[in-house]
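Suppose you are handed a protein chain with no further information: no name, no annotation, nothing but its sequence. What can you learn? This example shows the usual starting point.
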Amino acid sequence: MHRFLQPEGWPRPAGYANGVVARGRTIFVAGQVGWSAEGRFESDDLVAQIAQAMRNIAAILACDGARPEHVTNLVWYFIDKREYNNRLPEIGKVYREIMGKNFPAMTAVQVSALVEDGAKVEIQATAVVPD
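A reasonable first move is to predict its three-dimensional structure. Written in structure tokens, the prediction is:
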């Protein structure tokens, strides 16, 4: 469906791709925080918020018949990179439960704050549904 780009001689990245080539209908998903469909945070736990943000992305994709495996790019914004790094095994588990074994191009950035009070993470997605 998508072709992953891996320059010869580069170490293979863990959990993401260096680049992705895709052709089809493109869906841009605005940054999603870890709140419910009602706009409320059910938890202040980072992993729980990541899981909810991923479910929110999947719900938006489903509005146009897309699925998590169509995601080609994710941008993650965290307020605490140390907590993110310390909880990678838990994050990886919930990621795979929702996104499957799709590891698109990704960027992770620590920021001083997010617009939504109580948010610990915001995730933006791009998906390409094949022709």
